[in-house]
Amino acid sequence: MEKTMRAVVLDEPGTVDHLQLRVLPVPDPSPGWVRIAVKSFGLNRSELHTRLGLARGVTFPRVLGIEAAGIVDADPDGVLTPGQQVVTMMGGMGRTFDGGYAEYTVVPRSQVIPFHSDVPWETIGAVPETLQTAYGSLTTGLDLQAGQSLLIRGGTSALGLAATALAKDMGATVLATTRNPDRVTALADHGVDHPLVDDGAVAAKVRAIVPEGVDTALELVGTPTLPDTLGATRVHGTVCFTGMLSNHWTVQDFYPIDYLPRGVRLTAYAGEAGDLPAEVLQRCLDRIGAGRLSLGPVHVYRLDQIRDAHQDLEQGRRAGKLVVLVSGP
């Protein structure tokens, strides 16, 4: 009898009603690929963009999900041992081949990162893509150094909270924004040195704290706030464009000399599984398990609650990471 699994399928872009929980055959891995029994997965703006029809290069029908955490179920090449804890992300997951919104997923071995941890799966599911992006943004994107100041635009997002935790761990002073005044205390409790209410113009507020402007800035909202973020950054400071919470990521009629403040550097970051060193993942999980690090609150759903989770993601109802727990230990 053919082995089956539950998976969330998107036949075409649309509302949350287009997310269909179906029973599909368990996929078989080809040489060079690995089958993972998914324990949990995090939700990402990328999947929202796919559902809304904003993502490029996606083929349908498609099982969504650009990341997953679980255990190795099968490796036809015998490189990874069944039962090994792993995470995977990116590389076309949920876009050009089926992703993590399922009980099993098959991915290239090159994008599988092994680890060992007793941390609960719902916590692990919040880590892979968020950690990869936050770590890459702060290191490759900004070259953040101890003692520098960092502005995070979109501070209560899962990525913003993770970036705060890593930046504080690196010895930076963190300023972070939220559009919701009720979340200012949550930012402070998470370690943000200077929480700011974002009314669309925070550069003046930033310079009231850091008169010359911040050393570095992480733009997670998108192009609508990017000019103001650039204006909050000092000469020879760096802004890294990473997130698109606003769903706007292009600049119309871009004229660099007029758009960019004199001497302020603008870069960007987007990464893959290979950009997250295994030792960085392991250290993060070890510190989370020891209670010495938190990437922010985690909101847990079941697979049959995927529409609720997507609705919460789209409406920005939750601060922190949304995670679907597929199965227990």
UniProtKB/TrEMBL annotation:
SMART domains: PKS_ER. Keywords: NADP, Oxidoreductase. This is Zinc-binding dehydrogenase. It comes from Streptomyces albipurpureus. It comes from the Bacteria. It holds the Pfam family ADH_zinc_N_2. Residues 14-324 form the Enoyl reductase (ER) domain.
